[in-house]
Every structure is written in structure tokens, then in C-alpha cells.
């Protein structure tokens, strides 16, 4: 496949921030002359909520997809969390839930006709600083090193 089907923005790592309820948006634009079937999928089950998860875009049609980091979930410190947008020419022009889910089960991501767009994530610097301040503020103020002497605890710093 030489010609791109979709233009997806923004490029680069997507940023989650507490101010936006840990939600980020991507714009998906069909730049081809044919209907395109797309699907969002994650490398980590249950970490992200994606809406809409899949659909059909007619030529020159555009949609917004939101990706939300689920409550209580944290991004991998090694940057392993990814969301993949896969797409290919649609065999139909409208969304039929049963047909579309069966279609994706039989046309897996390793098919060379499937166009792939991969997204990595980062936490906003303000959210990280705020989290560090909260962690520091809730740490107990106690000596770093304690030793046990005769059945009672004695601080090594006193």
C-alpha cells in the first residue's frame, strides 16, 4: 500500500493531564478517495477507554477520537503503553456492528494491506510535579535509619 488512507493528528506522544480528566483527543481524517474502515486498539487491556473505538469514514470525512487513561491506571515508566489505529479500505460504506467486528477478527493487524498509526503517551509535567508534591507532603517525617536495641526502637539520628 503506497498511498495513505488517513491523516492522523497530533503526531508524537499524546499527553494526559489531570486538568483534562486524563483525556486526549486525536483527529482522524480520510484523505483517500474511498471509504476507510478504522479501529483503535491498545497494547494494554483495560488501561484506556477509546471513543469511538471503530468506524467507517467516507472520502474527506473527519472524526475526533478520545483516549482516556482509566481511573487508577498509570502510564508505564518505560513508555510501553501504546494505542494503535489500524485502517484499510472499507468493504462496506456504513457501519454494521456484526459485520465490522467479524471483519476485524479475520483481518488482523499483520495484514500488509492494513495501515497502522501508533501512539505513545506521556503525563503532563504539571501533573507529574503535583503528584511528586503530594507524595512528598504525605511522607511521614521520621529518621531514615532505625535500629532495634534491647527490644525498643532508637533513632540513629538522635
From TrEMBL:
InterPro entries: Ig-like_fold, MSP_dom, PapD-like_sf. It comes from the Eukaryota. Residues 5-122 form the MSP domain. PROSITE patterns: MSP. Pfam families: Motile_Sperm. This is MSP domain-containing protein. It comes from Drosophila madeirensis (Fruit fly).
Amino acid at each position: 500500500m503506497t498511498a495513505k488512507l488517513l491523516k492522523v493528528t497530533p503526531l508524537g506522544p499524546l499527553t494526559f493531564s489531570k486538568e483534562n480528566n486524563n483525556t486526549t483527543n486525536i483527529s482522524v481524517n480520510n484523505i483517500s478517495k474511498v471509504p476507510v474502515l478504522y479501529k483503535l486498539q491498545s497494547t494494554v487491556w483495560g488501561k484506556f477507554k477509546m471513543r469511538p473505538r471503530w468506524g467507517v469514514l467516507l472520502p474527506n470525512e473527519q472524526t475526533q477520537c478520545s483516549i482516556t487513561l482509566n481511573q487508577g491506571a498509570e502510564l508505564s515508566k518505560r513508555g510501553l503503553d501504546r494505542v494503535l489505529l489500524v485502517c484499510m479500505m472499507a468493504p462496506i460504506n456504513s457501519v454494521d456492528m456484526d459485520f465490522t467486528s467479524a471483519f476485524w477478527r479475520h483481518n488482523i493487524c499483520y495484514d500488509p494491506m492494513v495501515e497502522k498509526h501508533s501512539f505513545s503517551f506521556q503525563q503532563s509535567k504539571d501533573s507529574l510535579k503535583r503528584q511528586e508534591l503530594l507524595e512528598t507532603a504525605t511522607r511521614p517525617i521520621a529518621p531514615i535509619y532505625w535500629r532495634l536495641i534491647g527490644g525498643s526502637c532508637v533513632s540513629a539520628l538522635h
